[in-house]
Every structure is written in C-alpha cells, then in structure tokens.
Design brief:
Layout lengths: L3 H6 L1 H10 L6 H37 L5 H32 L20 E6 L12 H7 L5 H7 L10 H21 L2 E3 L4 E2 L1 H7 L11 E2 L4 E3 L4 H5 L5 E4 L5 E10 L18 E11 L4 H18 L4 E5 L11 E9 L4 E10 L3 H6 L1 E4 L5 E3 L1 E9 H11 L14 H4 L4
Parallel strand pairs: 2-7, 6-12
Antiparallel strand pairs: 1-9, 3-5, 4-5, 7-8, 8-14, 9-10, 10-11, 11-14, 12-13
Helix pairs in contact: 3-4, 5-12
The chain binds one RNA strand through α3 and α4.
Length: 419
RNA sequence: GGAGAGUUGCCGGAGCGGUUGAACGGGACGGUCUCGAAAACCGUUGUCCCUUUACGGGGACCCAGGGUUCGAAUCCCUGACUCUCCGCCA
C-alpha cells in the first residue's frame, strides 16, 4: 500500500497514477475518512490519558489505605465512553483500510504513460527469428505427433486449460524446471524454497492480489484458502511482519511452484494448446533489497531471466510495460516475450517487477538500516521463467521437417539423466 | 477427529488485578581496562500512532478478537498457531 502521509501530501499525483493504471480508488473519500479517523483517535487518546491518570491515583490511594470511592465513581462513566469511541474507531479504521487497500502502486517516473500494451516500449531484441526450409508447425501439432501433451484428457478430468503432459512431454517439462532452478541457484546465487501452494487471505493481501483479484483465483471456501496464482505470494510473504537485519539483505529466493489462475473474462483468448492455462508451472525469483538498490536489482533480475532464454538459444525481446499495462502492485515491469516460430508471434514468458515498498507496507516487511532505523524493504520478483510458453518456443524452434523435435543441448543432462 | 499442555521483548525465562513496556539471565552494541584480545566492570538494547521547530508530551501493543473491572500481560469466553498422547492416514 501507499503511505497515507504520502497520499495526503501528493493527492493529485496519486490520482493521476490511478487514472494512468486504469484503476479505481476514491482518494477524496479516503482522505475524508482519514481526517475523521484521526480526530476520533485523538479523542480516544485523550480519554485514555484521563483514565490512565486517575487509575494511577486510585492505585496510590489504595496503597495508602485512603478512600478512593469518589475517584472510582468519577471514572465509572468514562470506561463506557471509551468503549463507544473505540468501536467507532474500529469501524472507521476498517473502512479506511478497505479503501487504502484498493489504491494501486504509483508507477516509477520513467514508466511510459499509456492505456494498454500498444504503448509498451520495446527495450531490446535478442537474436533473430530462426529460419526454416519448411513451414514451421505450431506446438500443438508437434506435441500431438510426438505424444507430449493430452489436452482432451486434461479437460476430461478437470476442465479446459488443465493440460496433461504425457511421457516425453512430462519429462521435457520437468527437465526445463530442473535446469532453470539449478541455473539460478548456481549462477545467480539464489536460495531455493519449496513453499505451500495454498495460502491464506493475509498473504494474498500482502502481495496485492487481494482485494482486487479475488475473482481470478481458486478459493477453497471451507478453509478460506487460495491456490496461489504465482510463487510470488508464498515467497514474498515469507518475511511478513519481520524486521530483517541489514546483514541478511539482499535476500534472493527462487522457487518452483504450480500456478493456478481462473482467467475469468479471458475465455476464447489464446486458447490454443499451452498458450493460456488455468494451471501451469513456473520458476520464480524473489528479492528483498534495500530501497537504494532496488532499480539496479530489477535490471539484474531481468538479465537473470534473459539468460535462461539465451541458454536455450531462443529469440526473444524485452518490453517495458506502460502505466496501463502495469499490474496493481508494480512500480515498474519488464516483460520478456519469446518468439514462437510456428505461431509466428511473441509470447510472454516472464514478467520482472519492482514493487518498491508497496508490498513491504502491506505485508509489513522491514529491515534495520546501518543507523539502526527501521525501514520498509523493497520487494521484486520475476518469472525465471514460466514453462508452458517456454515449452512452446522450444518445440517450435527445435522442430524438424519430419515433425520430430530436438532436445536443446542444455537440457540433455536433465533429459537423459541416468540412475 | 478425540484428550491435554502452551503462546511474554533478539533468545531463554519471571510476572500477587493497580507507577510493569514488563524482573532476572544470555546475546548484541558502546565505553573503561589492555600493545591487542579475553575476562571483569559501567552503560545502551522495542514497534506503531498523534502532537511539538526542537526539548518534550500523550496513546496503543505481552498470539488475535470479545468480555468482567474504576483499572487486565495477569480473571472469563471464542478463535489461530505450537507441542504431547490416542485414532485415522500418504
């Protein structure tokens, strides 16, 4: 969330950010409630101060065996008054919090302003589209020919958007995950976590999925627990309500998890094969850093993700998202889009974002700086990377004229692992 | 699922309903001593909110939320979590 003090002093800036992000949040209402709640708090504090003071006197009287009935009588109504103010205060604080949680993060100053992805800015292009002396096929055809994927049976046992990877397909995907994990561990110095795939409301609120995206997530109503849409949620919330010692920063975690997304409202879009799924696997990087270095860390993470695609020898481009395409919690985001020669288009395989202190405030993740002051950390995360579209790009890039495909060199050790 | 025990500050661990934001011990940090270090000794060691130019002042917080009371870390209720035993089970 955004510091209410910042909102008070920069209301116009925050309002512009809301507009530019195509979000809705009533800042005027928020500020009005903020004012009311501070007045109530003041009243509460004063009443409490009186009660504390007289209670001290009562204690002193009793200690000296003096009569305190007058003082007790004087206080008998005060407790009720405090109770009333307190319940009003609780109500207004809840109201305040509810609105504050709907205020999106403010985009970083350099982020291009724009309505939608049309205003995104291409940062760089790596490599060139591979050339074929035959017409390259789309992944779903390659997968069918080689028995890698069974979408129909996935639909039978769950529903559409739940793929079954079959035989070599399952092995290929697992090899990809292993390769990416080890790469980040060994070359980029991340620490691996294996987290729960189901989290509670507090965690979902901490990273900013709630309250906005409740409808996009799978919910176990019996226990009020959500299936994670990304490892960002459990991993970032690892340090919820903690004050980290400076020596621990930066913290760099990598985790593989499945991701579950209802994709409400996107039916009929990118439905082919593995392009858009309700369940997919992803290797995710998360960092906790000092505020001063978070934008440098963002560039580093982007490279960390790019190296994966480079290792696979894939053609891709990096795009900086404009304000309108930026997610609710992000201040700045790069997307990496890999080239799919069969589909003849770029597919988003990674999103690398700096959330600055937005998530840290929500999840109350702080650190003690070199002067001993407690401050909010900056959090970042990036896919490194999501498997379905990576598998698409691999199959389409490494396909042969006869319909077969090659396993990229870097995957061989994982694919041909001997036991 | 059944029965029981617990949840206090960085950690361990006290805490009769009334100057207890919290004894005591450990750790950490600063200082004295030392050529340096250890030991010893002295000191420091909370988060958040409101107010103040500042010094300061006020409030909240001892798992969470309610209740009893003039007053709750301390009593009562509910919930969460942890541990032990039983049952079930990968």
């Amino acid at each position: 969330m955004i510091d209410i003090r910042f909102i008070r002093e920069n209301a116009d800036l925050v309002k512009a950010a809301i507009t530019n992000k195509n979000e809705k949040a009533d800042i005027d209402e928020l500020l009005m409630i903020d004012d009311k709640r501070r007045k109530l708090q003041f009243e509460f504090d004063n009443k409490k101060a009186l009660q504390n003071q007289v209670s001290g006197q009562i204690a002193a009287h009793k200690k000296n065996k003096e009569d305190a009935t007058a003082l007790i009588a004087q206080m008998s109504g005060v407790a009720d008054e405090i109770k009333v103010i307190n319940s009003e205060l609780t109500a207004i604080n809840n109201e305040f919090e509810a609105i504050l949680l709907t205020v999106p993060n403010v985009p970083f100053e350099s982020v291009p302003i724009g309505r939608d992805e049309a205003s995104n800015k291409e940062i760089r292009v790596h490599g060139t589209p591979p050339a074929f002396d035959f017409e390259p096929k789309e992944h779903i055809e390659i997968a069918t020919t080689n028995d890698l994927l069974d979408m129909a049976r996935g639909a039978k046992i769950t529903g559409s958007g739940f793929p079954v990877y079959t035989r070599q397909g399952a092995k290929l995907e697992r090899a990809v995950i292993n390769f990416m994990l080890e790469y980040h561990l060994q070359k980029h110095g991340y620490e691996e976590l294996g987290t729960p795939f189901i989290v509670n409301r507090k965690a979902m609120t901490g990273t900013g999925q709630l309250p906005k995206l409740e409808n996009d997530m799978y919910l176990c109503t019996e226990d009020d627990l959500f299936l994670i849409p990304t490892a960002e949620v459990p991993v970032t919330n690892m340090h919820m309500d903690e004050i980290l010692p400076l020596a621990q920063l930066p913290i760099k975690y990598v985790a593989y998890t499945p991701c579950f997304r209802r994709e409400a409202g996107s039916y009929g879009k990118d439905t082919k094969g593995l392009q858009r799924l309700h369940q997919f696997n992803k290797v995710e990087m998360v960092r906790f850093v000092e505020p001063e270095v978070s934008y440098a860390a963002l560039e580093e993470m982007l490279i960390d993700a790019e190296e994966i695609l480079q290792a696979f020898g894939l053609h891709y481009r990096v795009v900086e998202l404009c304000t309108g395409d930026l997610s609710f919690a992000a201040a700045k985001t790069y997307d990496i889009e890999v080239w799919a020669p069969g589909a003849k288009r770029y597919l988003e395989v990674s999103s690398v974002s700096n959330f600055v202190d937005f998530q840290a405030r929500r999840a109350n993740i702080r650190y003690r700086d070199s002067e001993g002051k407690v401050r909010f950390v900056h959090t970042l995360n990036g896919s490194g990377v999501a498997t379905p579209r990576l598998v698409i790009a691999i199959l389409e890039t490494y396909q042969n004229a006869d319909g077969s495909f090659r396993v990229p060199q870097v995957l061989r050790p994982w694919f041909d692992l001997k036991v």
